[in-house]
Each structure stands twice: as structure tokens, then as C-alpha cells.
């Protein structure tokens, strides 16, 4: 056996680290970028070498060995619109990712008032508009109190949720009963407004694209929009410009199966399909339909104390023209007042939906709301600005990111009590390969030996369980791999 010095060995690094995901990049896309960088890096050559050798000893296919890449996984996806902490597992660190799905997380978001979209965020299509002139900093501060602590929350009832493989608005489109989705218990440990963005002081805007046709009908039913306002909204000319939702793939976050666990019942026209953190009883009664006029649609209030959302004629974002303006030949129009927004900071438990909070907060303020920005600032022990790799460092090259990633992984291995595997050089490994193959073969034989035992059977294989059922119902095992034969 050829001897090797410790200096000739190289150590395998694996574990968990975090990277700051940029906006409009998918979580899966970040993993692909990391794999490309890691594959060409000397830092992960020991891991690739060790894994390939194990595959060779186990008889893996040559193609699989040649195309091996560093094993990666993430501990909780982020929507393309969101930025911030993305947990990444490397090698056997992927087995530790479940704990990061269950840990607490901190977010910073911007909620924009006055409109709602089918995805509850700024990349969806507008399904409703409401008054927002009455929404003030004091009102938002007051309504935030009901969202702290333990609450029941439903995820978005639109693109982020399916029931038995069908989107919620498709049930309404077909005219049938809308399934009731059970609310989930979540806890908001901290929630505060860190900045009030008054109209005219920010650049956040509603999406330009609106839900149209049959999709609008389903969305109106799901959001509890009054028939009167819905009729006016359908008479409004929709913009043909494309929003980012047509260009960016939004990852599906939920898929619920087994509708029997969520009993179906008809949803009344006065019951808004909100996320479940607010009371929905005593909603305003249904109003008779009106003739279609160019107007914007509005959602019903979600709490008993609220008053009906103003109709389109009362909205501040569509001032009516005077007779002088009507008779004027000028083509210039006054831009509508910008809606207010609020920047929120929160710490929540697993399963919490920030976009649902933004939607519910809009309803609580007798308006509508959508999520215009989202940053995950912390997940578990990983926090932006402290121990998170910047994506720009990955783009800068291995001389920038390699020392950081190596330090993060070694720190994780030390916390877990993992010993670093040392990889032999090629010459030493080839010299010892035959001995290792014999040792592995002997270990396989030891695992296969279980002793003889009585089994019911008629001399056939036990359907893939690896036990040969011989005659007279006996099962034979042997350490010499002869299957119980006697020579």
C-alpha cells in the first residue's frame, strides 16, 4: 500500500451558507449560477473527486460520473420579485435545509394602497381599485396592531394557490361553488412601520395590466367586489401594455390536494376572499348592479366597523372633468394623485405570507393593498450585511467569493461537529483502489447475510424485496452469495 502524507491530501468542504438573491432572479436560477461557479473552482475539486470515486466503487454509470456537479439545494424559495437571504446547502448540507424552512424569518416590505392584484403583489394583474385618500400613517399604525401575535392566515387565493389542481378563480368562472380553503395558524413576533411614504414621495406604482374577460369575473367573486362596482369596472377600457408578470416566471408557492379536507360552500357576494387574518362577518350588503360606465372596481370592507369603499365617482385618482374641460380642445390631462405606501418590518414564523399581510392591511384600512417590494433580511442565523454572500461577489470571480464561501462552510461544519474528509492524491488512490473494492464487496456481503428463515411463497421472487423464496416456503441467504445452494 502506498503511503501518503497529510500534506498531500485535500479537504472536502460542504455545509450551508447564504447568498443575497438579486431581484428578478429565480431561486433555482441562483443555484444554477452557483453550480457553474463551483464546478470550475479549486475549492470544490476535493468534493467532486471524492464523490466521483465513491460512484466508481459503487458501479455508477460513466456518464453520470462525467457529468457530476456539486450537489446544491435551497432552504426556502424567494419569488423573483423579492431579494435577500437565500439559504444554500452544499453536499450533505442539503440534508440540513429542513430546519431553515421551519425557523423564523425577518422581512422588509412596501405595501402600496388603492389597488389589488391577482397575485397580491406588483407583478400581477389589477383586479380591483379603491379609495385611498383617507389612508394615513395614523390609520395604518392603528390597523397593524391586529396583525401582531398569533393569527390565522390564508395564502393568496389567486395564482399562488391551487385546490385539487385547479386555480381558485377557475371555480368561480365555471359558476360553481368556490372551495373553502382552511386558514393556517401563523405568528407575527414583530411588526412595525419603519417609513411612511406619502403621495408624491416615492416611485411605486400599480401594475398597468388588468385582469380581463372571464378571469375578471372569477376574481371579482373571490375578492368580494360588489356587483355594482364590478359592472363599472368591466366597462373600463383596459391597458394593452404588458406588465412584468408577462415576462417573469412567478414560482407557485402552494398546492393543496384533497378538497374533502376543505369543505366547499357557496361564497356570498358580500364575503371578501381575504387571507383570513381579519373578521369577515357583517360585511356590507350586496348592492344592485348599475349600468357600465368607465369606473374602477372596489373591494368590500373586511371588518364590522368599516364603511363601504367609495365608488369610482368618489375616488381621488379619477377627478371628473368640468364643462370647461369638456369643451376645451386641449389633449393634456392632469395625472391622478399618487397613492400612499408604507414600509413595514416584521419577524414571522414558518408559513407566513407577506403578500397576504399587504392585501389584508389594505382591506383593514377600508381600501385595497398590494406588495410592491420584498426583502428577506434574515433567515435563522443568516442576516444581510453580516454573514451573507453578495451576488456581486460571485460575479466578481473566485478570488473574491472563494474565501468567503470557504469560511462560511467551515464555520457550519464546526458547529455541526463534522470532520473534514481528506482526499488522497490520484496516485495513492489508484494504488489502494483494489483494496477498497474488495472491502466494499465484503461489506455488501455482510449486509446481505441475514440467516435462513421461514417465508411463505411458491419459489418466486418477493416482488423486488430481494428475498428469494425457495421451495417449501423457505428463504435462503448466504454470506458467500450462493443463494443457499449446496455444491
Automatic annotation (TrEMBL):
It catalyses: a uridine in mRNA = a pseudouridine in mRNA. Residues 207-343, 416-487 are annotated as: Disordered. Gene3D superfamilies: Pseudouridine synthase. GO terms for molecular function: RNA binding; tRNA pseudouridine(55) synthase activity. The keyword Isomerase applies. GO terms for biological process: mRNA pseudouridine synthesis; tRNA modification. Its EC number is 5.4.99.25. Residues 69-198 form the Pseudouridine synthase II N-terminal domain. Residues 419-428 have a biased composition (Acidic residues). Residues 233-243 have a biased composition (Basic residues). The keyword Isomerase applies. GO terms for cellular component: nucleus. It holds the Pfam family TruB_N. Residues 207-232, 253-270, 432-457, 477-487 have a biased composition (Basic and acidic residues). Keywords: Isomerase, tRNA processing. Belongs to the pseudouridine synthase TruB family. This is tRNA pseudouridine(55) synthase. It comes from Westerdykella ornata.
Amino acid at each position: 500500500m502506498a503511503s501518503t502524507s497529510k500534506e498531500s491530501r485535500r479537504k472536502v468542504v460542504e455545509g450551508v451558507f447564504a447568498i443575497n438573491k438579486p431581484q428578478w432572479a429565480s431561486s433555482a436560477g441562483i443555484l444554477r449560477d452557483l453550480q457553474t461557479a463551483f464546478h470550475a473552482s479549486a475549492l470544490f475539486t476535493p468534493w467532486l473527486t471524492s464523490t466521483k470515486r465513491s460512484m466508481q466503487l459503487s458501479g455508477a454509470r460513466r456518464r453520470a460520473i462525467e457529468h457530476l456537479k456539486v450537489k446544491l439545494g435551497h432552504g426556502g424559495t424567494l419569488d423573483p420579485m423579492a431579494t435577500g437571504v437565500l439559504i444554500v446547502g452544499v453536499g450533505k448540507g442539503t440534508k440540513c435545509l429542513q430546519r431553515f424552512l421551519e425557523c423564523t424569518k425577518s422581512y422588509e416590505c412596501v405595501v402600496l394602497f388603492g389597488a389589488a392584484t391577482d397575485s397580491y403583489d406588483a407583478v400581477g394583474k389589477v383586479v380591483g381599485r379603491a379609495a385611498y385618500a383617507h389612508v394615513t400613517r395614523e390609520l395604518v399604525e392603528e390597523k397593524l396592531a391586529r396583525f401582531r401575535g398569533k393569527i390565522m392566515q390564508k395564502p393568496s387565493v389567486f395564482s399562488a394557490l391551487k385546490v385539487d389542481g385547479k386555480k381558485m378563480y377557475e371555480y368561480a368562472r365555471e359558476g360553481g361553488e368556490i372551495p373553502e380553503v382552511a386558514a393556517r395558524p401563523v405568528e407575527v413576533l414583530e411588526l412595525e412601520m419603519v417609513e411612511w411614504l406619502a403621495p408624491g414621495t416615492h416611485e411605486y406604482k400599480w401594475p398597468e395590466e388588468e385582469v380581463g374577460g372571464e378571469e375578471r369575473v372569477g376574481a371579482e367573486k373571490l375578492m368580494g367586489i360588489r356587483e355594482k362596482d364590478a359592472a363599472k369596472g368591466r366597462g373600463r377600457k383596459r391597458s394593452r401594455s404588458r406588465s412584468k408578470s408577462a415576462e417573469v416566471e412567478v414560482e407557485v408557492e402552494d398546492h393543496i390536494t384533497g378538497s374533502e379536507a376543505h369543505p366547499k360552500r357557496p361564497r356570498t357576494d358580500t364575503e371578501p376572499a381575504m387571507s383570513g387574518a381579519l373578521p369577515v362577518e357583517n360585511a356590507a350588503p350586496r348592492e344592485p348592479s348599475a349600468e357600465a360606465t368607465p369606473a374602477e372596481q372596489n373591494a368590500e370592507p373586511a371588518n364590522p366597523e368599516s364603511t363601504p369603499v367609495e365608488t369610482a365617482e368618489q375616488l381621488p385618482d379619477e377627478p371628473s372633468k368640468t364643462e370647461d374641460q369638456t369643451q376645451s380642445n386641449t389633449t393634456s390631462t392632469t395625472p391622478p394623485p399618487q397613492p400612499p405606501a408604507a414600509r413595514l418590518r416584521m419577524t414571522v414564523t414558518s408559513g407566513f405570507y407577506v403578500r397576504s399581510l399587504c392585501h389584508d392591511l389594505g382591506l383593514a384600512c377600508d381600501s385595497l393593498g398590494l406588495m410592491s417590494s420584498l426583502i428577506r433580511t434574515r433567515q435563522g442565523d443568516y442576516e444581510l450585511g453580516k454573514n451573507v454572500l453578495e451576488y456581486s461577489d460571485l460575479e466578481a470571480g473566485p478570488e473574491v467569493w472563494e474565501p468567503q464561501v470557504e469560511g462560511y462552510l467551515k464555520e457550519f461544519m464546526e458547529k455541526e461537529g463534522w470532520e473534514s474528509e481528506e482526499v488522497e492524491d490520484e496516485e495513492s488512490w489508484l494504488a489502494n483502489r483494489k483494496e477498497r473494492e474488495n472491502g466494499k464487496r465484503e461489506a455488501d456481503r455482510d449486509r446481505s447475510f441475514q440467516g435462513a428463515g421461514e417465508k411463505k411463497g411458491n419459489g418466486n421472487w418477493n416482488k423486488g424485496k430481494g428475498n428469494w423464496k425457495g421451495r417449501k416456503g423457505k428463504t435462503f441467504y448466504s454470506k458467500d452469495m450462493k443463494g443457499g445452494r449446496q455444491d
